[in-house]
Structures are given as structure tokens and as C-alpha cells.
Design brief:
This protein is α+β, with helices and mostly antiparallel strands and 346 residues long. It folds into two domains: 158 residues, Roll (Diaminopimelate Epimerase, Chain A, domain 1), CATH 3.10.310.10; 165 residues, Diaminopimelate Epimerase, Chain A, domain 1 (Roll). It is 18% helix and 43% strand. It contains five helices and 18 strands. The chain has an 18-stranded mixed sheet that branches. Strand 3 and strand 4 form a beta hairpin. The two termini are 36 Å apart.
């Protein structure tokens, strides 16, 4: 019998490095993905969506993944200053920014020699669909190990604050809209008879989904750089402790269909941008954000203010956390397998 690799459909053999940040998986596609056409990263994102979506499903869906899986495809960069470029994939489609991926990819880039290692920190510039993100990877010269990672966001801003929507069966809901590389609706659960720690996750998921579709149906989002970035990505349910140094939140992304196991890096960015806009956090004031179901943590702080298009109170946010390895993978699509491109049982 010939080797399984030679039975792969159309010669597809995809190799990955498996990681997680705060429990949120990251399947890093390092080889075997077809070359993506397009002059810019957003062009490549559209090409992958329109022509290679069966590979996204194969890698994210069962039996190779699950409904909350997340991945990153390393692709050709088109930004001169970038060390690497990445497209984000998940079970609902293609993201524009992913903070937990930045924390893992920063470490990956150093450990796998994409960027020369320096002590005490290595700077890694990562081109994302939303723009260039700079990560800093700590390095312990004594142990030879990479450690904590921090990244500085693209310009983040509050798109709208203290908005109200009537949702059937939920009553009036107050929410903010923030951008941290992706747009999120931010909602305090103090408005409802739920608790982020004790309420079953499926109940919180249904709540987030109701909010997502309610907000999406009445909101037209815009972005100063590209219309491709102007879409509602998810809902972040918070404990409402927006002036406290420690706060809980759970992010529901991919049209609020998927549950982030980490506090969410781009969500933390969006949340701090809104908090700064509302005067709830000061420049350089650190916040610890916890995902209460898992207990994973990220730290965030507003490090500078910028003007970004019409947003005079836009900010740059620094988020820090840990990325860890879980293994390596080789995946192929076997001829004759009717489920080769994946499925989801929900």
C-alpha cells in the first residue's frame, strides 16, 4: 500500500504547528496551503474565501477540528516592514484580527527562526488583514526559552457608546460598539439575570447570539481603511466592572456562534478603547481581563492616543499573555472520503 500522503486529494498535504493561548486553540498552517492570489492581504483573504474555502472547512470542522476551532495561515507578506503575514480562519469564516493568535505567533516566529532571537525581547512585526501589529517576545537567555508576549494593536476606537436596542424576549439592551482590529458589541450582563461564572455557557451563547443579530440588523459599520473591515465580528459579555482593575468577560465571535476560551486579545483591545473613550480607564492604567469559565488571563493597557480617520480619541492598546505549544499535525484529504471537507454536529 502506498503511503497515506500520496493518497491525498489533489496532492494536498497540510502541515501545522498546534498552539493555544489561554486555552483558545491556534492551528498554525506552516506548509501545504495553495498559494493565494492577490496584491494585498485583503485580496488574499477574498481569494481564500472565494476559491479555497473547502480547505478552511477541512481544517476547522470535524473530524479534524470542532465548532470552536481557530487557525492561522502563514502567507506571503506585502508590507515591507512585516516579518510575516497571516490570515485568520475559524468555523464561520475569516477574521481580520486575532489577539490570541498574535501572542502565540510572536513566540512561534522566534522559536522557529522566522525572526532572529534577541534578549531580553524580540520584536516581531506581523501583517494582519487589519494592518501591521508589533509583538514583543520575552526571552530568557539563561534557560533559552521564549516567554510572555505582548503586542501593540492597530488603532482602536469606540464606534458608538451607550446605544439601546429592543430585543424580543430580552427587553431593552444597552451596548457599546468598539473596534480592536475587529468590531464587537460590548454588553454588561448586569442588565440580565445571569452571571458569567455560574450561568451555563449555552445560555450565555444564546444571549450573545440574540444581541449580535439584533445589533447587526440596525447598524451600518464603517472603517477608515477598508469596507472589508466594516463588519460586526462578535459580542463580548462583560461583568460590567468597567472601572475595576480586574474584570471578567467572555467573547462570542464568528457571528457570536463560537466561544473564545481566552479573554480575547482583539476584544480586550476594543473594550479598552471604549473604556478610554468613556473615561473609565486612564493612559497606561493596566487592566487584568479574565475568561471566567477557563480562568485564563490577559493584561491590557492603553499606551497612546492617535487620530484615526474621524476618530480623534482612537488609541493604541498593548495586550500581553502566554502562547503554548500542544503539538504538530499533518492533514490530507483522502480520495473517496465523502466527509473529507468536514462537517459540524450542533
Amino acid at each position: 500500500m502506498s503511503s497515506p500522503e500520496l493518497q491525498g486529494k489533489d496532492g494536498v498535504l497540510i502541515k501545522t504547528v498546534e498552539m493555544h493561548t489561554g486555552g483558545e486553540p491556534l492551528r498554525v498552517v506552516v506548509s501545504g496551503y495553495p498559494r493565494l492570489c492577490g496584491d494585498t492581504l485583503l485580496d488574499k483573504r477574498r481569494y481564500a474565501r472565494d476559491h479555497l474555502d473547502h480547505l478552511r472547512r477541512a481544517l476547522m470542522f470535524e473530524p479534524r477540528g470542532h465548532k470552536d476551532m481557530y487557525g492561522a495561515i502563514l502567507v506571503e507578506k506585502d508590507a515591507d516592514k512585516a516579518d510575516l503575514a497571516v490570515l485568520f480562519i475559524h468555523c464561520e469564516g475569516y477574521g481580520t484580527m486575532c489577539g490570541h493568535a498574535m501572542l502565540s505567533l510572536g513566540r512561534y516566529a522566534v522559536d522557529y527562526g522566522l525572526v532572529p532571537r534577541a534578549s531580553p525581547e524580540t520584536e516581531v512585526k506581523i501583517q494582519c488583514p487589519c494592518g501591521l501589529v508589533t509583538a514583543h517576545v520575552q526571552y530568557d537567555s539563561a534557560s533559552g526559552k521564549s516567554g510572555r508576549v505582548r503586542f501593540k494593536s492597530v488603532p482602536a476606537f469606540a464606534f458608538a457608546v451607550n446605544q439601546k436596542i429592543e430585543i424580543s424576549g430580552r427587553g431593552p439592551v444597552v451596548y457599546d460598539l468598539g473596534y480592536g482590529g475587529a468590531f464587537y458589541a460590548l454588553v454588561s450582563v448586569q442588565q440580565f439575570n445571569v452571571d458569567l461564572k455560574t450561568t451555563p455557557i449555552q445560555e450565555l451563547l444564546h444571549l450573545a447570539n440574540d444581541i449580535f443579530h439584533g445589533v447587526k440588523n440596525i447598524t451600518t459599520l464603517t472603517h477608515p481603511d477598508s469596507a472589508d473591515l466594516a463588519f460586526l465580528y462578535g459580542v463580548i459579555l462583560t461583568d460590567g466592572c468597567d472601572t475595576a482593575d480586574v474584570s471578567n468577560n467572555i467573547c462570542f465571535f464568528g457571528e457570536a456562534e463560537e466561544v473564545d476560551r481566552s479573554p480575547c486579545g482583539s476584544g480586550t483591545t476594543a473594550r479598552l478603547a471604549v473604556q478610554y473613550h468613556k473615561g473609565q480607564v486612564k493612559l497606561d492604567q493596566e487592566r487584568l481581563i479574565v475568561q471566567p469559565k477557563v480562568g485564563s488571563e490577559m493584561r491590557g493597557r492603553v499606551v497612546s492616543t492617535v487620530t484615526f480617520g474621524p476618530y480623534e480619541l482612537a488609541v493604541v492598546v498593548e495586550v500581553s499573555g502566554w502562547g503554548h505549544y500542544t503539538g504538530r499535525g499533518e492533514y490530507w484529504l483522502e480520495e473517496g472520503d465523502p466527509l473529507s471537507t468536514g462537517f459540524l454536529v450542533e
